[in-house]
UniProtKB/TrEMBL annotation:
This is 2-oxoglutarate and Fe(II)-dependent oxygenase superfamily protein. Belongs to the iron/ascorbate-dependent oxidoreductase family. InterPro entries: DIOX_N, IPNS-like_FE2OG_OXY, IPNS-like_sf, Oxoglu/Fe-dep_dioxygenase_dom, Plant_2OG-oxidoreductases. SUPFAM superfamilies: Clavaminate synthase-like (SSF51197). Pfam families: 2OG-FeII_Oxy, DIOX_N. Keywords: Iron, Metal-binding, Oxidoreductase. GO terms for molecular function: metal ion binding; oxidoreductase activity.
Amino acid sequence: MASSVETFFRPNIGCVKDLAESSDLISIPSKYSYFNTQNQEDGMDEVVAELVQIPTIDFSILNSTFPDQRSKVIQDIGKACQDWGFFMVINHGVPESLMERMLAMCRDFFDQTEEEKLECAGKHVLAPIRFGTSFNSSVDKVFFWRDFLKVLVHPQFHSPSSPAGFSEISMEYCEKTRQVARELLKAISESLGLEENCIDKTMELESCFQILISNLYPPCPQPDLAMGMPPHSDHGLLTLLIQNQNGGLQLNHNGKWVNVHASPNTFLVNTGDHLEILSNGKYKSVLHRAVVNNKVTRISLAVTHGPCLDKVVAPVAELVDSENNPALYHGMKYKEYLEFQQSNQLNGKSHLDRIRI
């Protein structure tokens, strides 16, 4: 039975959701067998079973009229960036009802027919709207147990035409998350000893490149063999993530994989490659991955915030000293970095390694 599914399923065109819902699916096609291939070689299967508590940041304190409180939360953000590369944000001001509606809209999108979703199957990695499976099915040697929708939402806003209401809700949601990201980056700028608006101005965040990425990870009959998303770091500066309450996110902390779960009405925030670059390595982007299970569907929604596409990103001059703290990265246009990363296989932080000095 399983072999017939493997023969007729077209992963480069179709989607994992349809495969997972096949009534005769009892084992995964070999194309999805991640842990029988490269993972046996890279030793990335060690997981700490317990749930870890990542740092929690109270966003509302950034607007505190008490200087000591604000200074303390800025220090906490800096420490979270340096020690974890992940932190959870509470009291962020984005309505919980809006977050819930946005997740529901993503679920409605994936619940459409394959033909409806394939209308969004943009071919270029920077297509305004792109639906697909795995990461980049044209180059992936092993397919990942994931369907995705990627939408470019700033500086030009795009949206799939269906389901109804997606455009209005996603526009409001992305405006709100963009405001949160820019305020966090002001605090991060200060935590690095820079002026509050240094990152905002240097990276031209008024024209920041913002992408909405929804991921669907259906139940998998052999979760010990498949992978939702492989170990990788994010491009850009900050990613804000929400998810339904079905776990699956793991990050690499001190050389071990640990499980991360967010409370309702919170954002999981992680640092990206370009924050590592501009901070000259002080704040490193963190490896993370998505694992799957055989019981429930996980939906996550990530919004990435990067510099202006045409911006050449290099270490901030104030953080570089030719004698004691030389530049660790070559400058590279953000668009070129993004196109290279999205056009190739995900392999840890290999794309960032290309521009290390």
